[in-house]
Amino acid sequence: MEIEDYLNSSFSCSCGREHKVPIREIVVEGDALLKVPEIIKELTDKSRLYIIGDKNTFGAAGSRLAAICRKNDYKVNKVILEGEHVVPDPDTLFKILEKVEADGYMVACGSGTINDITRYLSYKLNKPYTIVGTAPSMDGYASSVAPLTVDGVKKTYNAAPPEAIIADLDVLKDAPWRMIQSGFGDLLGKYTSLLDWKLSKILLNEYYCAQAERIVREELTNIMEIGSELKDRSRESIKVLTKGLIKSGLAMLMVESSRPASGSEHHFSHFLELYGSLFDQGIPSHGNKVGLGTYFTSSLYLKLSEVDFSRIELNHDRSSRKEDIKEIYGERAEPVIDNLNERWKNELISEDRLEQKEDKIKKLIRESSKSLENVRRYLDQIGILEREDVRALDTDWIKKGLKFGFEIRNRYTISTLLRQAGLLENWSDEMVDSYCQKVL
Ligand SMILES: [Zn+2]
Ligand SMILES: [Zn+2]
User: Fold this and answer.
1) 3-175 and 183-438, same CATH topology
2) Ligand nearest to the backbone CA of 20
3) 3-175 has which CATH code?
4) 14, 60, 361, 428: which could form a disulfide with 402 (CB 3.0–4.6 Å)?
């Protein structure tokens, strides 16, 4: 199915749920900026537009967008956020609030942060908005939640998805290379996030939607063909990447959870982010960390497929996990321990259950084994592992991220299973040691 088929609709799905996609328009094409006025005309009667962005995104598209809208008889107020890196925090929210009045329509111009903040404001003010993307860097364009930093802690808040997502391929193809790599890494992570979701469905009967999986997978098949083309920033390859990211967002929107698009590879990334903020150190961008996480998580899956499940001894030891969390997460341990308490009962699988499901799980891994084996090659095609900031990551943090990162979210993944099976610690150490030899 094409993106358009899901838009502005609500339908009963074979998964047993009713899915709603309130997004009315998605445009991914060259020169899409020129279409913005007519798209907005369909969405609102308002004649004033508040274009929200920062110095970089105004340079990439915002200024041109403002001129195009003015030419089409819109009154335009530019809301340009100061600073090299805009932080999604209350200060930034206020700066936008101060400038946006009830008389106009909000147009976010940017990618991650700008979209996150506007999405939250849109929800709180009950004021719909449109996003004009500037980089294919993450899968949050269609999202209905917003990660914001409050009192130094990142939290996810409810938010409103945009009414329209407009991605001008001629803008996106000129995005900084780091951001294109990041988008690629984020999309690559869907291989393992989908596996984690199915693993949990098999072992814990977690809710699962085949339609949402299909949407994520559709573009994933194509993306692997275009890794090397991305380097030349061909329109076609940027289009595949952008559509893949937007579709992952749609899948999340449909099931009202990030489950289809975020698993152990993302928990690894969240962990490094948390350590970066705890120790005040710069770390690679989201998708580049996810790409690295996918490298390790895919190896965990391949390794698991070689284990005889009848030899696995499960050890559900709550106090040792709690102690580990206290030690590793330090001053941030409390919410992680709350998570553990919340998930504990639900995740207690038995050895019998695991053995019963051995064939199913191994079949699942077999079906993806080609892609899992190729993750390293895909990463190499666009040079994520060679990035300076990725190479500079502390090896000890990487090990901790693999061994304890899974605790950060209440979500069953391969890492949870391997921890229960007493295999995670050794496997992670071995993998990182061999990564250091092969890559660093
Ligand atoms: Zn992501
Ligand atoms: Zn469904």
Assistant:
1) no
2) 2
3) 3.40.50.1970
4) 428
For 292-340, how does the pLDDT look when each residue is reduced to its tens digit (9 = 90+)?
A: 999 999 999 999 999 999 999 999 999 999 999 999 999 999 999 999 9
Distance 41 CA to ligand 2 centre (A): 32
Q: What is the mean predicted confidence (pLDDT) over 182-206?
A: 97
Sheet holding 25-29, edge to edge: 25-29, 164-168, 129-133, 104-110, 48-54, 75-81
Side-chain-facing half-sphere of 233: CA atoms under 13 Å = 16
176 C-alpha to ligand 1 centroid (Å): 18
Q: How many Cα neighbours within 13 Å face the side chain of 134?
A: 24
What is each CA distance from 273 to 257, 280, 302, 433, in whole angstroms?
Answer: 21, 10, 26, 21
Instruction: Give domain limits for the chain.
Output: 3-175, 183-438
Q: How far are the Cα atoms of 11, 197, 350, 412 from residue 205, in angstroms, in the given order?
A: 23, 10, 14, 11
Centre of ligand 2 to C-alpha 231, Å, is 35
- 183-438 CATH: 1.20.1090.10
Residue 225 burial (CB < 10 Å; 0-12/13-18/19+)?
exposed
12 Cα–ligand 2 center, Å? 7
